[in-house]
Amino acid sequence: MAPSLSDNRTLHILNAAAAGKYGVLAAIAYNIEQLTAIVRAAEAKRSPLIIQLFPSTLKQLPTLAHAAAAAVNSATIPLSLHIDHAQDEAHIREMMETLPVDSIMVDMSHFDQAENLEKTRILAKECHERGIAVEAESGRINGGEDGIADTGDLEALFTAPSDVEDFINASIDILAPSIGNIHGDYGPSGPAQGQLHFDRLESINKQINDRVQIALHGTNDFPPQVMQRCIRSGAIKLNVNKLILEVWNVFLRENASKMGIVGLIDEGMNVLQKETERWMDICGSSGKA
Predict the structure, then answer these.
(1) Segment among 5-19, 149-163, 164-178 with least mean pLDDT
(2) In which element (H, E) is residue 244 found?
(3) Which residues does the annotation say bind Zn(2+) 2 (predicted)?
(4) I want to staple 115 with a disulfide (CB 3.0 to 4.6 A). Which of 109, 111, 240, 285 is the partner?
(5) Could you give all domains of the chain from N- to C-terminal order, each with its CATH number?
(6) What is the pLDDT of residues 111-153, one digit of tens each?
(7) How sure is the predictor about 103, in pLDDT bands with cuts at 50, 70 and 90?
């Protein structure tokens, strides 16, 4: 019997979050240490968590997806494995066939709108046949970050009501709208006043009316109150990269020459776990598992 989306772990996590009106971290990991730390945080906080890997990481560390899947299967709280910003069709099909993933972001946003939708529709059908949920980006979210193509030279396009319908009709499960958010850094104070269009996000959420879930990309440098405002406006899958990983980066930079490798790994994971736990509290997912 073919797998069914009714058993999909990512969608179970997001549907529960939507019903409970809290946000769930969809946290990028680049290595086994980061993966271990974020899973420990989820267990400690009894919080659901979506583990995210970039396609570039899968090529760099081919066994990491299997380690993440093992963490998902052995956890005592709801976890899922998501591939973020998958931009190569052949690689997406390879991932579908060979990796134990729960959901994939089919990111065809570097094509024009008609081609984006057509490719998304075809790939969504193939994913669904394997019980894999699909996320897509409507509009275009500017910028770049470690592991995905930089779209900084492309015009940022806001998500319009017609985009929402077009992507829902392409059979996606999770929509990542463009509301002024960017991939990459906003600066130490976070997004500028008025940069994020919360009214647009609220309108998109109302239009969707529970047909799909909303993912928020571009959360680097977010203050807690901005994240919480986005959650109240309907975004529940919260993609985080630098937002939680920067403490890890800083710790390694400041201590790599002073500590042995074992101590560096141990303490680095503790630092990252604590920061992940802090954001689980902020987003309201602590204690929801």
Answers:
(1) 149-163
(2) helix 242-255
(3) 107, 137
(4) 111
(5) 5-283 (3.20.20.70)
(6) 888 999 999 999 999 999 999 999 998 866 554 545 555 444 4
(7) very high
* CB 28, CB 147: distance < 8 Å: yes
Tokens 């968590």 belong to which residue? 49
Does the annotation count 166 as an active-site position? no
Token pair belonging to 158: 């806001």
pLDDT for 95 equals 96
Query: What is the per-residue DSSP string for 36-87?
Result: HHHHHHHHHHT--EEEEE-HHHHHHSTTHHHHHHHHHHH-SS-EEEEEEEE-
Distant-in-sequence, close-in-space partners of 164: CB < 8 Å, separation ≥ 6? 138, 175, 177, 204, 207, 208
Q: What is the pTM of this model?
A: 0.94
Cα angle for residues 33, 34, 37 (degrees, 5° grid):
85
Q: What are phi and psi of 139, to 5 degrees?
A: 70, -160
List the structure tokens of 271: 């630092």
Buried b (16+ CB within 10 A) or exposed e, 235-270: bbbbbbbbbbbebbeebbeeeeeebeeeebbeebbe
pLDDT tens-place string over residues 249-274: 999 999 999 999 999 999 999 999 99
Instruction: Supply 199's token pair.
Output: 């009214």
User: Positive or negative CA dihedral for 217, 221, 224, 226?
Assistant: negative
189 burial (CB, 10 Å; 0-12 / 13-18 / 19+) is exposed
* Residues paired with residue 216 on neighbouring β-strands, in sequence order: 238
- Give the DSSP H/E element, type plus range, for residue 132: none
Residue partners of 160: CB distance under 8 A and separation at least 6: 139
85 is in an annotated binding site: yes
Sign of the CA dihedral running 3, 134, 172, 39: positive
Q: Does 183 show up as a binding residue in the annotation?
A: yes
